[in-house]
Amino acid sequence: MRDDIVIIGGGLAGSEAAWQAANRGARVTLYEMRPKRGTAAHKTGNLAELVCSNSLGSADSVSAPGILKDEMRHLNSLTIHAAEQARVPAGAALAVDRDAFALEITQTLEGHPNIRILREEITDIPDDCLCILATGPLTSDGLAQTLSALTYSKHLSFFDAISPIIDSESINHDKIFAASRYGKGGADYLNCPMDETTYNAFYDAMMAAEKVQPKDFEQVPYFEGCVPVEVMAERGRQTLLFGPLKPVGLVDPQTGRRPHAVLQLRAENQHCSSYNMVGFQTKLTYPEQRNVFRMIPGLEQAEFLRYGSIHRNTFVNSPTLLKNTLQLKVKGTTFLAGCLIGVEGYVESAATGGLAGLNAARGLAGQPLVSPPLESAHGALIHHITTSNPKYFQPMNTNFGLFPPLPKTIRDKAQKRQAIQQRALDEFRQWTTQYEIL
Predict the structure, then answer these.
(1) How would you classify the pairing of strands 130-133 and 93-96?
(2) Domain 165-307, CATH
(3) Residue ranges per structural domain of the chain
(4) Radius of gyration of the chain (CA)
(5) Residue 307: strand, helix, or coil
(6) How far is it, in rounded angstroms, from Cα 135 to Cα 14?
(7) Please, are residues 123 and 115 in contact by the beta-carbon 8 Å criterion?
(8) Whole-angstrom Cα distance, residue 411 to residue 87?
(9) Residue 189 neighbours by CB under 8 Å, 6+ apart
(10) Is the separation of the CB atoms in 275 and 166 below 8 Å?
(11) Taking a C-beta distance cutoff of 8 angstroms, is the pair 55, 67 a contact?
(12) Which of 366, 331, 311 is nearest to 133 (CA)?
């Protein structure tokens, strides 16, 4: 076995993985194919180049993304350090000068005595070392073929077809009813009934709403399992009534009749703290999603934990394939991180890269591998990624719906989130002390 850790992919996840592993004494070889071989999205050869937004999300410490950032600061994250060095004004968001950000990370890793950077494309996963695969949403065709074989093809996807997720506490339960179609399987869904007038108003608003125009590299070949709800609606006013809004097999207990249309909400986690809008993958802009979807009865005050989208991506079915240490179940010497494991967002990608690097370094040193506590932002995200129902698995960002409930109910939203934040940071710090991670 080689005595170094091989990391494939120099994006946010791969860069953070290299930093965390190297800082724990591991020798690291980081492979990045750019600039020798470019992608349809990247413009430079710098590591950790941001290709879409230059925002790393909320900097508010009492927000789910903010908690994740604070935990990463506790781990001396290179991503967070570089972002703060390259920060530009953006209100409550942590936005950066993308060139300065990537340059800071590139130069820092190039100057690290334990890191060797090779500008080569890798198409095979090595067997003679611990390896972290962090190639992101634009994984090259050659490596994707290797990964496809390793994951039995059916567990590898090349695009996201994501429906919005709603905070359970923001749903008006007085206007909806719990039931499964035809009464099969128990009352597993929350149902939002619409009469004909409400449906027609909703349909017209959706047809008029602004849609996101994909970039050339994000073009997605639709098939019937991932058609955006608004594209489906373009086929005719009645189409949704035979698709995601079909009312067949459901009776509204308030009227005793079948509604004209029904949106079903499916629990997204075991805590039932968040719900997925079933079949509502969409390309509506985020503001339009808020405006249009709040026209649905019961969702007038809906708080969206994740918005819907469809875009180019490469990710595996992590609940089927990954341990909570980010190792492949079928190949324990290989770790996966970043978008590849089904996380959404720059910071989430970097955070999982950091965990993979930490565990690879521990593995190389003969130490037991670890997984963060469930109460932490890192732990809640990893728990979701590795334990969700594989049948419905889709990429996820950090949000309050992932955290386990507090032991005592707190009605005030601000106080509740502050309590979640404090518990998360306390548990995370105790974890790093217990396992001597810092």
Answers:
(1) unpaired
(2) 2.40.30.260
(3) 4-161+312-434, 165-307
(4) 22
(5) coil
(6) 8
(7) no
(8) 35
(9) 178, 179, 180, 181, 264, 265, 266, 278
(10) yes
(11) no
(12) 331
Q: Which two tokens stand for residue 94?
A: 């942590």
Buried b (16+ CB within 10 A) or exposed e, 183-194: eeeeeebbbbbb
- Which phi and psi (to 5°) does residue 178 adopt? -95, 130
Task: For residues 393 and 395, give the distance between their C-alpha atoms in angstroms, rounded to a whole number.
Answer: 7
Give the number of other Cβ atoms within 10 Å of residue 173's Cβ.
11
pLDDT computed for residue 349 by the predictor: 97
Amino acid letter, 94: L
Closest CA to 340 of 321, 359, 358, 314: 314
Element (H, E) at 102: helix 98-110
Q: Which two tokens stand for residue 242?
A: 């035979």
pTM above the 0.85 mark? no
d(CA 70, CA 64): 10
At residue 411, φ and ψ (nearest 5 deg) are -80, -40
Q: What is the DSSP letter of 285?
A: -
Residues 6+ apart with CB under 8 A from 423: 375, 406
Which residue ranges in the chain fall short of pLDDT 70?
39-41, 152-155, 157-158, 160, 214-226
- Please tell me whether residue 35 adopts helix, strand or coil conformation: coil
Instruction: Verify cis geometry, omega within 30 degrees of 0, for the bond prior to 319.
Output: no
The alpha carbon torsion through 395, 398, 399, 403 (nearest 10 deg) reads 100
Q: Backbone phi, then psi, for 175, in 5-degree steps?
A: -100, 0
Rounded Cα distance between 16 and 303, Å, is 31
Tallying the residues shown for the chain, one arrives at 438
**3-state class (DSSP) for residue 316:** strand
Torsional sign, CA 336, 401, 284, 198: positive
* The token pair that represents 17 in the structure block: 């993985």
CATH superfamily of 4-161+312-434: FAD/NAD(P)-binding domain (3.50.50.60)
369-421 residue pLDDT tens: 999 999 999 999 999 999 999 988 888 999 999 999 999 999 999 999 999 99
Measured between alpha carbons, how far is residue 278 from residues 91, 166, 193, 284, 304 in Å? Answer: 33, 11, 14, 16, 14
Return the SS3 of 16: helix
Nearest to 347 by CA among 381, 324, 318, 323: 381
